[in-house]
Amino acid sequence: MTSTSIExxxxxxxxxxxxxxxxxxxxxxxxxxxxxxxxTDLRTMRFLEVFNVKRPRAVTQxxxxxxxxxxxxxxxxxxxxxxxxxxxxxxxxxxxxxxxxASIINLSFGISIIDGVRDYSLTxxxxxxxxxxxxxxxxxxxxxxxxxxxxxxxxxxxxxxxAAEEQAFTDTLTGLKNRRALDTVLKxxxxxxxxxxxxxxxxxxxxxVNDTLGHAAGDHVLQTVARIMxxxxxxxxxxxxxxxxxxxxxxxxxxxxDVLRLVAHRIIDxxxxxxxxxxxDCRVSASIGTVWMQSGNAPSLEELLSDADLALYASKHAGRxxxxxxxxxxxxxxNSISPPQGQTRGTR
Length: 348
Fold this sequence. Notes:
The protein has 348 residues and is α+β, with helices and mostly antiparallel strands. It contains 12 helices and 13 strands.
């Protein structure tokens, strides 16, 4: 068999092979092996100029490799990207003068095949038809596609979970936080012994709106009130609807009661204005009971809300449309105070 025909067969069967002379010069490179050195013809170079032999160790000349039979090699390209390769070296038989003492080194990417395909822009045509690397690439691509599909599904599921959790903490009519969300926030603040305040708010005369104009008008009023409360509080304050016409505002990091008086005044003042609905004016007002929690106070959640309710009841008894700040003295007079005529907490 001629030299040309031998190399053609090797190119077809082992496209990543090298033919190296006894002196260590590369005399032929398979088409895929040549792609490892895109800018330099490998046939002009010595094997050890192109490759660093990592195993066997202490190789300083090609004759050390050529003297071994069926030696497995661990190699690394000397130029970036310093691709790791595996190889096997066998003597080239056939007796042709051009190949006396030559060796064939067949190369493989091994587990670095994915990097190799990417770094050298290889395709199916760069591998022998029987090379299992092709099947491995298909499996990797299929796994990558499956993992990407799984990632997208997980993102959608996480989004759905977040949406469901958000819905569980949201009042559907007003978009405010609900009782469940409020309890979570208050428990966290109580555990941290922070400065904060809680405003319990009831709408006065709301039942009259429902009775005279219907529930659609009542819903419109509640939505308008919710918007006003959000507008008149700070960005880090929590506004919640906790009952039919009952709202709670949590104000974190309150260091003086002037803040409480200002916020309450703005809400009360705005809710005194009529709320138009289909040509009619809906008239309500806001009664507020406020508890200001300062460092060192450690009531339970139930005690905190009870104190706020007591302050709210005092506001209603005093004539509505006002705020009362809780003080322990309120409890001593609570039993002597009767509810305003026709008005109790939670009446719509």
